[in-house]
Amino acid sequence: MNDRLSRAGSPQPVVAVYGASGHTGGFVIRELSRRGFTAVAIGRDAERLAAADFPAGVKREVAAIEDPASLARALAGAAAVVNCAGPFIDTAEPLVSAALRARIHYFDVTAEQASAQAIFERYSAAEEAGVAVIPAMGFYGGLGDLLATAAMGDWTRADEARIGIALDSWKPTEGTRATGRRNTARRLTLAEGMLRPLADPAPSVVWPYAEPFGAQEMVELPFTEAILIGSHLQVSELHTYLNTAPLRDLRDARTPAPVAADASGRSAQTFVVEVEVRQGSTVRRASALGRDIYATTAPLVVEAVERVLNDATAPRGVFAPGGLFDARNFLTALAPDILS
User: Fold this and answer.
1) Cis peptide before 208 (omega within 30 of 0)
2) Domain 3-138+296-333 falls in which CATH fold?
C-alpha cells in the first residue's frame, strides 16, 4: 500500500472510475486499489458491472451518461473521477460537467482529438471551481506529451517535434473498435505553431528503431498529443507517426481482443515510443519502452490522480500532463516496473 495514502488512520481518498467494467477501466480500478485508494466502479450496464472481477472493497454504481442525477449519486463522496468510457466524444463533456458540479477532479484517457480539444475550449470554469481537469492522461496523448516536455527540458521553444510510436501488434478492445467507428473527424497536427489538418494522404517515413523493432514503416497519425502539446509547448511543427503493422491488425475485423499473458492481466504486446525535439541543428531525445498499451494507461492516469490529490497548492484548471507536472520526475516514478 502506498504510504502517502495510509498514514495514521487518515481516510483513504475515494476515486470513481467511469467505464470501470471495460478493459482499461479494470486496469485502472486495480491500480487504484494497489496504491491504497478507495475505488468506486461506475458503469452503464448493471450486468457487466456485477460480473466484473474487481478487488475486494470496490463499490459498484450504475449511472447513465445522459442522466445527471445518476452521475451525481455515483460521484457523491469521491475526490476525483477517471473516465475510461469511450467514445469520449460522447462521455467526456457530460462527465466533466458532473465533476465541476461536484467540485471533484476529472481525468480521462482519450485518444480522440475532438474530445480533448473541446475540454480545453469549453471548461475554463474548472479553475473557478477549484478542480483540475486533465484530458488524455493515457498511453495515446499523455505519454507523448510527457516525453516531449521532458525532452524539451529548459528550452522555451522548438522548431520541430517528432514522435514515433511502434507496437509489435494491436489486439483492439471493444471500446477501441467503437471509438474508431465514431471518431471520423480529420486529424490535426501542429504547423507553424497552430493546429492544422493533417495532409491527405498522410506522409510516411521509415523510423530507425533499435532492436527488437528495427527499422519500421510508419505513417503520420496524430492522436491527442497534438492537442496537449499545442496547449503548453512552443513547438512550430509536430509530426506523430505510428508503424503500419498494428494498423493492419486494427483494420482487420478478425483480430481478437487482448489476452492476458501474466497474473497482472497484461497482454504480451510490446511498444516503444521515441520523441525527438529539434532547435536549429540541436536535437534532444526521450523514449519509453513497455508492455501493453491498455495496461500502461492505468499507472499513467493513477499517478496523475495521486499527484493532484496530494498537492492542495497545485494550480487548478484544464491542463495537459506536461503543463502541470514535472515531466521527467513523473516518468521516472513509473520506471522500471511500468516503463523502462
Assistant:
1) no
2) Rossmann fold (3.40.50)
The reply to whether CATH 3.40.50.2000 applies to domain 141-293 is no
- Report d(CA 31, CA 19) in Å as an integer: 15
Burial 235-249 (b: 16+ CB within 10 A, else e): bbbbbbbbbebbeeb
CA 318 to chain CA centroid, Å, is 15
- Dihedrals phi, psi of 144, to nearest 5 degrees: -65, -40
User: How is residue 26 written as a grid cell?
Assistant: 479494470
Phi, psi angle pair for 213, to nearest 5°: -75, -45
Q: Using one digit for the tens of pLDDT, what is the confidence trace for 123-139?
A: 999 999 999 999 999 99
Q: Are 331 and 288 in contact (CB under 8 A)?
A: yes
Dig out the grid coordinates for 309 from the structure. Answer: 490529490
Task: Map residue 300 onto helix, strand or coil.
Answer: helix
The domain locations on the chain are 3-138+296-333, 141-293
Total-model pTM: 0.96
The CA distance from 66 to 198, in Å, is: 33
Q: For residue range 210-260, list pLDDT tens digits in order.
A: 999 999 999 999 999 999 999 999 999 999 999 999 999 999 999 999 999
DSSP β-bridge partners for residue 189: 196
Amino acid identity at 20? A
Measured between alpha carbons, how far is 277 from 274 in angstroms, rounded to an integer? 10
